TrEMBL record:
Domain Glycosyl transferase family: 181-347
Organism listed in the record: Acidocella aromatica
InterPro entries registered for this protein in UniProt: Glyco_trans_1 (IPR001296), Glyco_trans_4-like_N (IPR028098), Glycosyltransferase_grp1 (IPR050194)
Keywords: Transferase
Stated name of the protein: Glycosyltransferase involved in cell wall biosynthesis
GO molecular function: hexosyltransferase activity
Length: 414
């Protein structure tokens, strides 16, 4: 199979979507008979550097870098003009616009994304249904079972939808740093008990709950890594002597903070999933697994797909301050528990490398291409009622907030 990987944002960049797509393409390309990458190039880079990073020949997108909406539009409208578009057996993309244009121009498409778009932008539901059930839409790789179910509810044949979780790069942990040494490297006393969070620091990540826990646990040192400047979380943390805010780190320096953690924390909150709709199965989860450090997270529908309570992590009820406080106390005082969870996480992580993800996707695509056509989708009265009801809620939400994304918590059917 010959594949044109199509990405709509400049490469390289440090955002999670770029890491997921570029790394998946890098590991999936060896399973093909030929591959190309269609993407814009960041101002600070060159086409040669992007090709070297991914190991795939670059077809530079004919698109301006800004504004983003125009960039996305141009990436889609110009991709059919490229020779690689015509040579490929299908387009592999995470962009709905690119998918639609490619199908209109006679190409086949494999889609790969984490967002449950039917819930988040309900007015698109019928169009999404028509796109995903088109005969040239080969199938969709969903990053979670949570998202996959949303498309099944839309009426898309389940056989066209496969859940393949994200992964991590094992080489990033090849040179593990002992806990005490890692603490020294980041300026923390070896005897301090550390709770480390990595990722974007903002109000959408459930970090207000973490700061509340820090107030009740002055004996613990909370290290929040991923600040882009002064925001509400940074201002709240400034009053807490046991909370340390650290700027966004590069791949080369982030490992020191991971290895310095007595506990790696995924804020146990439903807010990122159900209130803001911004995160489904955070990418850091797989990175945490690979580190072999103890993990504490919330028992939320997406996280529970990968982590197992008392086996690979300590999962606590979401949005419960007492449960979070008690869980942190347990994990920082019970060395046997911490070691058992660390070992469980390290063993479980073998299923979630980028190489393993690419192999699963390659096998799925081969199966899709060799199988008879998928059965028809189903759009009936229930889907129509849901479409209209959720679209009304979306419109009210948009008028109030000017946000195009309707959080899942606001999308219950009527």
């Amino acid at each position: 199979m010959r594949v044109l990987f199509a990405f709509e944002n400049p490469l390289p960049n440090a955002e999670a979507d770029a890491e997921v797509f570029a790394t998946t393409a890098k590991y999936l390309a060896p399973h093909t008979d030929g591959a190309w990458l269609h993407a814009p190039v960041a101002e600070t880079s060159t086409p040669e550097a992007v090709s070297q990073m991914t190991g795939i020949p670059l077809v530079r997108a004919w698109a301006p870098l800004t504004p983003a909406a125009l960039r996305h539009f141009c990436c889609g409208i110009t991709i059919p003009l490229r020779k690689a578009f015509r040579r490929a057996d299908f387009i592999y993309t995470r962009n709905l616009w690119v998918s639609w244009v490619s199908i209109l121009c006679g190409q086949r498409v494999v889609f790969d994304h984490y967002r449950p778009w039917p819930d988040q932008i309900p007015p698109l539901q019928y169009w999404l249904y028509k796109l995903f059930t088109h005969e040239r839409f080969i199938g969709s790789i969903c990053h979670s079972e949570y998202t996959r179910q949303k498309y099944i509810e839309l009426g898309v044949p389940a056989s066209k939808l496969r859940c393949v979780h994200n992964g991590f790069e094992p080489s990033r942990f090849a040179a593990a740093i002992p806990l005490d040494e890692a603490k020294r490297q980041i300026g923390v006393p070896p005897e301090a008990k550390t709770v480390v969070y990595t990722g974007r620091i903002n109000h959408k990540k459930g970090l207000d709950l973490v700061l509340d826990a820090a107030r009740q646990l002055p004996e613990l040192t909370f290290i929040l890594v991923g600040s882009y400047g002064e925001g509400p979380i940074e201002r709240m943390a400034a009053t807490l002597p046991n909370v340390r805010i650290v700027p966004w780190q590069t791949e080369d320096t982030l490992g020191r903070y991971i290895f310095a953690a007595d506990v790696l924390l995924i804020p146990p909150s439903l807010q990122p999933l159900a209130k803001f709709g911004s995160t489904v199965l955070p990418l850091k989860l797989f990175f945490y697994l690979g580190s072999g450090r103890p993990i504490l997270a919330g028992d939320t529908p997406d996280v529970a797909e990968v982590l197992r309570n008392d086996e690979t992590a300590l999962l606590v009820p979401p949005d419960s301050l007492p449960a979070l406080v008690e869980g942190l106390k347990r994990l920082t005082s019970d060395e046997a528990l911490a070691e058992r969870l660390s070992n469980g996480a390290r063993e479980h992580s073998r299923n979630y490398t980028w190489a393993a993800r690419a192999k699963k996707i390659a096998d799925i695509i081969t199966h899709w291409r060799q199988s008879p056509p998928h059965g028809p989708g189903h759009w009936g009265k229930a889907q129509t009622r849901n479409w209209l009801a959720q679209s009304r809620r979306w419109f009210v939400h948009f008028v109030r907030t000017r946000s195009f994304i309707l959080p899942p918590g606001n999308t219950s059917s009527s």
